[in-house]
Amino acid sequence: MLRTARTCGASAWLFFLLILVAAPAQAGSIDYLDDASYETGERFESIYDPLEPFNRVMFTFNDRLYLWVLDPVATGYSKVVPVDFRTIVSNFFYNLSEPVRSVNCLLQGRLADSGLVLSRFLINSTAGVFGLADPAANEFNIHRIQATLGQTFATWGIGDGVYLVVPLLGPSTLRDFTGAIGDGVARGLYTPWSDDLTTSSTVYGSQTINEVSLHLGQYQDMKAISLDPYVAFRNGYFQLRQKGPRTGNPAEFPAITAPEFHYQN
Amino acid sequence: MRFIKQLHLIVAAVFFTFFMHVPAQAVSDPVEQLRPVVDRITTLLTEADFKKLPREEQFTKFLNLAAERFDFNEMSKRVLGPRWNSLSDEQKQLFIDRFSHLLGYTYMDRIDTYDGEPIQYEQSRIRGDRAEVRTIIEFKDGDIPISYIMQLRDAEWMAYDLIVENISLVRNYMEQLRSILQRNGFDGLIQQINSKIAQLQATKK
CA-to-CA distance for B76 and B87, rounded, in angstroms? Predict the structure, then answer.
């Protein structure tokens, strides 16, 4: 409980910082057929990145962590554990966060989506055996719907703040990172392992390894073709977020978890 | 009765001649133009003979084929943005050559795991002289969406950007190149592209 309280304190502090640097949220999406989407200048600029020196250090840290630890472990894991089982593990963790997504949908005023996410949770937790399978999508045709606290903040008009490379987590912005902490705290309220730091880090670690094992090689591919990987990933992150809107909500963009491992939305 | 029959024929003939006068460009379909080239590229990549070739020869074959539908001039112009106009003609040619090599290796490496998987062509989007052709390669471990952004040049649709998994390569390189240009100038940029190409040439996947 103490840990949760401390995380709450940290997120409150971050939230305060966020309000301080908040800029108007960016809306609208990119149309590649428009030349404007290729123009340089102040209008189409990347995420505001005043912390670049710090971020570059964190990027290198994540890069080493990925190449020296995560990737070898995930490679070994992917050799031992078949892809079906890895998908099941991934489904399980995904399902666990559905209530948080449902609440976020509510907070963003997406009532229908909120109900759909909740139905997904109910169907998958029962018919899908604790979320191991995804019958909601396969049988009932209710597909995954993304909603994060970061998006909720965006809907409320809070800007990105600054670009932030978070150790272990990867590219984010101050707003989205704050949101991710909030989502994590909210999930912690109903997941049994959240009180104990060792258990929760083990769970987070195995979840990460599992996700990496499903996207092996993509990170290296992206890095191999880049002249300046730091800028390439920052721009990639920015582009993925600009692609939207999908439900008519301008603040919605594909939610991204650890984008350096996952380039599909 | 007979007259009505003939009238139909006349109307049909008039319509026919009318539509014949629609300029050829409006008829050309970007998907129909792109698909054969992509087919030839993917066939090439899966050929056993091709796989035995040294990497540089592979690349030359690949690039010659790609050049039929890729407008490397336009790509280079876009990727450098306003800086393009300040370059001399030789610098422009040098940049086009180097950048097409960089992009070529990038694209080739992106699809060299291709082994005959089905490629879906989705509905293309055309607006004026621009078009976006969406394709999805259905790899075993997941689909990879690749979109081709094309421009109409004398009835030929030529691609000037590739959107791989929702990330525009031109826009991505644009930002990288800008900061390198600011720091190291044009010569520094060419140097860096060259060493990247050398690195990509050396990788044997």
Answer: 12
- What are the tens digits of pLDDT across the range B191-202? 999 999 888 888
Query: Do A231 and B175 make contact, defined as CB atoms within 8 angstroms?
Result: yes
**Does some domain include residue A120?**
no
With CA atoms as reference, the chain B residue closest to A214 would be B141
From chain A, pick out residues whose CB is under 8 angstroms from the CB of B168: 32, 37, 239
Interchain pair A239, B106: CB under 8 A? no
Contacts of A232 in chain B (CB under 8 A): 172, 175-176
DSSP label at residue B187: H
Is A72 contained in some domain? yes
- Check B147 against A32: CB less than 8 A apart: yes
CA dihedral over B175, B178, B183, B189, signed as positive or negative = positive
Q: What is the ipTM of this complex?
A: 0.75
DSSP B124: P
Please state whether the predicted TM-score (pTM) of the whole model is above 0.90: no
Residue-number span of the structural domain to which A239 is assigned: 2-18+48-81+147-263
